[in-house]
Design a protein that fits this description.
Elements (H helix, E strand, L loop, with lengths): L12 H26 L1 H20 L8 H25 L4 H8 L1 H8 L7 H15 L9 H27 L2 H12 L4 H7 L7 H26 L4 H8 L2 H13 L5 H20 L11
Helix pairs in contact: 1-2, 1-10, 1-12, 2-3, 2-8, 2-9, 2-10, 3-7, 3-8, 4-7, 4-12, 5-6, 5-7, 5-13, 6-13, 11-13, 12-13
């Protein structure tokens, strides 16, 4: 297998992670701008398909040298990645970016709290539950319930993706795992993208935007995160990833004009604090970007 070339220019780990977070949110804003023309299914297909092409060209994995055991772990990893992204984009078409990311984050947070034994760990459970209660539209109005359900389902798949990703990372080098995984990620998404008819609306301009989406949402953040993880402790990285819901809410406000209520901002804050606290006090690390 081919090793990834060492980049000529590298950022210090902290700026690299923060830039990765900003990049993902910029990509989500681009995706939401494409939904009215292409729809979420076609947008997801383009993001994953173009990301797979870019990663295959840059990483150049030797597919013929992969062993059967490696295929068996990378295939479900990729399928989970693709389905997770599809569900997240479907939710993003219905609810604000900040709420979608916050709800999705409940998946990895729940995984981080699995096996919690100390009483203090349950403080994070209570905070997360309070955040969910603040987001929930108890009146049945104001927020799309299907969108919320899709975001939660994407979060559940994010937890599955973490477990499968750990197994895949043990079997394959990180860049190779992501590049090959992206090929499988396209399989559950492409049929919906084709069936939606959105791909027929492609123009050179929209294709350019889709390329930027793939760059900002997948290629750049994955590269920056792998670069940062060479020297940054995993726990520190996980705590920084806990800022994702806040970054998403701010991005939705600045780039998309999406406003959250005070209760929704408090929900974001509670879940971020719960996520950071769980990272500090439990042994199970949290992951890099999921469905975004």
């Amino acid at each position: 297998m081919n090793d990834t070339p060492t980049p000529r220019f590298t950022l210090p780990p902290l700026p690299a992670v923060l830039l990765a977070i900003v990049s993902v949110q910029a990509g989500a804003a681009i995706a939401k701008g494409l939904f009215p023309v292409l729809g979420p299914a076609a947008t997801t297909s383009l993001r994953i398909g173009l990301s797979a092409l870019i990663l295959l060209v840059t990483v150049r994995p030797r597919l013929g040298q992969l062993q059967a055991a490696q295929w068996r772990v990378v295939a479900p990893y990729g399928l989970a990645l693709g389905t997770m992204n599809f569900l997240f984009y479907e939710s993003l078409a219905r609810i604000p970016l900040g709420l979608a990311v916050t709800l999705e984050f409940i998946g990895p947070l729940s995984l981080a709290l699995v096996g919690a034994r100390r009483w203090f760990d349950f403080v994070w459970v209570v905070l997360a539950a309070a955040g969910i209660a603040l987001i929930a539209p108890w009146s049945g109005q104001g927020i799309d319930l299907l969108g919320m359900g899709l975001a939660l389902a994407a979060g559940g798949l994010w937890a599955v993706y973490i477990v499968l990703g750990q197994r895949t990372a043990a079997a394959l080098p990180g860049p190779v795992a992501v590049a090959v995984g992206m090929l499988f990620a396209a399989l559950p998404v492409l049929p919906f993208g084709v069936a939606s008819g959105g791909l027929l609306a492609l123009t050179p301009y929209l294709l350019l935007l889709a390329g930027l989406l793939a760059l900002f949402s997948s290629v750049l953040p994955f590269s920056l995160e792998m670069q940062a993880l060479r020297t940054m402790p995993t726990r520190t990285f996980s705590i920084l990833m806990s800022l994702e819901p806040v970054a998403a809410a701010v991005s939705g406000w600045l780039l998309l004009g999406e406003k959250l209520t005070l209760a929704q901002w408090l929900a974001v804050l509670f879940i971020v604090v719960a996520s950071a606290g769980a990272t500090l006090t439990t042994s199970r690390p949290q992951p890099a970007h999921g469905g975004e």
